[in-house]
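Sample log: DoxX family protein.
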Amino acid sequence: MSLENTLAPWRPQVLSVLRFMAGLEILQHGMAKILHFPPVPQMANVQIGSLMGIGGLIELIGGALMVVGLFTRPTAFILCGFTAVAYFMVHASKSFFPILNGGELAVLYCFVFLYIFAAGPGPWSVDAMRGRK
Protein backbone atom coordinates (compact mmCIF):
# COMPACT_ATOMS: atom_id res chain seq x y z
CA MET A 1 0.00 0.00 0.00
CA SER A 2 1.42 3.38 -0.99
CA LEU A 3 1.78 6.35 1.32
CA GLU A 4 -0.75 8.26 -0.81
CA ASN A 5 -3.37 5.55 -0.28
CA THR A 6 -2.58 5.39 3.42
CA LEU A 7 -2.93 9.14 3.96
CA ALA A 8 -5.82 9.84 1.56
CA PRO A 9 -8.58 9.13 4.11
CA TRP A 10 -7.07 11.78 6.42
CA ARG A 11 -7.13 14.66 3.89
CA PRO A 12 -10.39 16.19 5.17
CA GLN A 13 -9.22 16.12 8.79
CA VAL A 14 -5.83 17.62 7.88
CA LEU A 15 -7.70 20.42 6.06
CA SER A 16 -9.54 21.11 9.33
CA VAL A 17 -6.23 21.20 11.21
CA LEU A 18 -4.73 23.59 8.61
CA ARG A 19 -7.78 25.87 8.91
CA PHE A 20 -7.59 25.78 12.72
CA MET A 21 -3.87 26.54 12.87
CA ALA A 22 -4.02 29.31 10.24
CA GLY A 23 -6.90 30.81 12.22
CA LEU A 24 -4.93 30.65 15.48
CA GLU A 25 -1.92 32.30 13.90
CA ILE A 26 -3.90 35.19 12.39
CA LEU A 27 -5.97 35.48 15.59
CA GLN A 28 -2.85 36.08 17.65
CA HIS A 29 -1.96 39.07 15.44
CA GLY A 30 -5.40 40.54 16.06
CA MET A 31 -5.23 39.84 19.79
CA ALA A 32 -1.85 41.55 20.06
CA LYS A 33 -3.12 44.65 18.23
CA ILE A 34 -6.59 44.95 19.76
CA LEU A 35 -6.44 43.16 23.13
CA HIS A 36 -2.70 43.79 23.73
CA PHE A 37 -2.19 40.11 24.50
CA PRO A 38 0.35 38.78 24.15
CA PRO A 39 2.11 42.09 24.66
CA VAL A 40 4.08 43.01 21.55
CA PRO A 41 5.95 46.34 21.86
CA GLN A 42 5.40 47.29 18.18
CA MET A 43 1.65 46.80 18.60
CA ALA A 44 1.23 48.44 22.01
CA ASN A 45 -0.29 51.72 20.84
CA VAL A 46 -2.53 50.60 17.98
CA GLN A 47 -5.64 52.78 17.65
CA ILE A 48 -8.83 50.98 16.56
CA GLY A 49 -9.60 53.60 13.89
CA SER A 50 -6.15 53.43 12.33
CA LEU A 51 -5.25 51.23 9.37
CA MET A 52 -3.40 48.87 11.71
CA GLY A 53 -6.36 48.85 14.10
CA ILE A 54 -8.81 47.96 11.35
CA GLY A 55 -6.41 45.25 10.24
CA GLY A 56 -6.30 44.02 13.83
CA LEU A 57 -10.09 43.78 13.92
CA ILE A 58 -10.09 41.80 10.66
CA GLU A 59 -7.45 39.48 12.11
CA LEU A 60 -9.25 39.13 15.45
CA ILE A 61 -12.71 38.40 14.04
CA GLY A 62 -11.51 36.48 10.99
CA GLY A 63 -9.08 34.42 13.05
CA ALA A 64 -11.78 33.49 15.58
CA LEU A 65 -14.17 32.47 12.78
CA MET A 66 -11.46 30.37 11.13
CA VAL A 67 -10.59 28.61 14.41
CA VAL A 68 -14.15 27.40 14.90
CA GLY A 69 -14.84 26.99 11.18
CA LEU A 70 -17.84 29.30 10.98
CA PHE A 71 -18.56 31.17 7.72
CA THR A 72 -15.28 29.65 6.58
CA ARG A 73 -15.35 30.34 2.85
CA PRO A 74 -16.28 34.04 2.99
CA THR A 75 -13.89 34.55 5.91
CA ALA A 76 -11.05 32.82 4.06
CA PHE A 77 -11.75 34.96 0.99
CA ILE A 78 -11.56 38.15 3.06
CA LEU A 79 -8.39 37.01 4.86
CA CYS A 80 -6.79 36.01 1.55
CA GLY A 81 -7.37 39.49 0.18
CA PHE A 82 -6.38 41.10 3.47
CA THR A 83 -3.03 39.32 3.58
CA ALA A 84 -2.37 40.09 -0.10
CA VAL A 85 -3.01 43.79 0.54
CA ALA A 86 -0.84 43.64 3.66
CA TYR A 87 1.97 42.16 1.59
CA PHE A 88 1.81 44.88 -1.06
CA MET A 89 1.37 47.74 1.42
CA VAL A 90 4.04 46.71 3.91
CA HIS A 91 6.55 44.46 2.16
CA ALA A 92 6.61 44.67 -1.64
CA SER A 93 8.10 48.15 -1.85
CA LYS A 94 11.24 46.97 0.00
CA SER A 95 12.18 44.31 -2.56
CA PHE A 96 10.68 42.06 -5.23
CA PHE A 97 11.65 38.93 -3.30
CA PRO A 98 9.62 38.01 -0.19
CA ILE A 99 12.71 36.59 1.54
CA LEU A 100 14.36 40.01 1.24
CA ASN A 101 11.32 42.13 2.14
CA GLY A 102 10.11 40.10 5.15
CA GLY A 103 6.85 39.15 3.47
CA GLU A 104 7.10 35.36 3.42
CA LEU A 105 4.37 34.89 6.04
CA ALA A 106 1.98 37.31 4.34
CA VAL A 107 2.39 35.45 1.03
CA LEU A 108 1.99 32.07 2.71
CA TYR A 109 -1.13 33.21 4.62
CA CYS A 110 -2.60 34.56 1.39
CA PHE A 111 -2.29 31.22 -0.40
CA VAL A 112 -3.34 29.14 2.61
CA PHE A 113 -6.52 31.20 2.90
CA LEU A 114 -7.05 30.95 -0.87
CA TYR A 115 -6.83 27.16 -0.55
CA ILE A 116 -9.24 27.10 2.38
CA PHE A 117 -11.64 29.32 0.41
CA ALA A 118 -11.57 26.77 -2.44
CA ALA A 119 -11.49 23.59 -0.32
CA GLY A 120 -13.88 24.56 2.48
CA PRO A 121 -13.61 24.15 6.24
CA GLY A 122 -13.11 20.40 6.54
CA PRO A 123 -15.21 18.06 8.68
CA TRP A 124 -14.15 19.41 12.08
CA SER A 125 -15.94 22.75 11.86
CA VAL A 126 -19.13 24.51 12.87
CA ASP A 127 -19.93 24.88 9.16
CA ALA A 128 -19.78 21.09 8.72
CA MET A 129 -21.93 20.51 11.79
CA ARG A 130 -24.51 23.02 10.55
CA GLY A 131 -24.56 21.28 7.16
CA ARG A 132 -25.44 17.93 8.74
CA LYS A 133 -28.64 19.24 10.30
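Observation: The CA atoms of residues 30 and 41 lie 14 Å apart.
Observation: The two ends are 36 Å apart (CA to CA).
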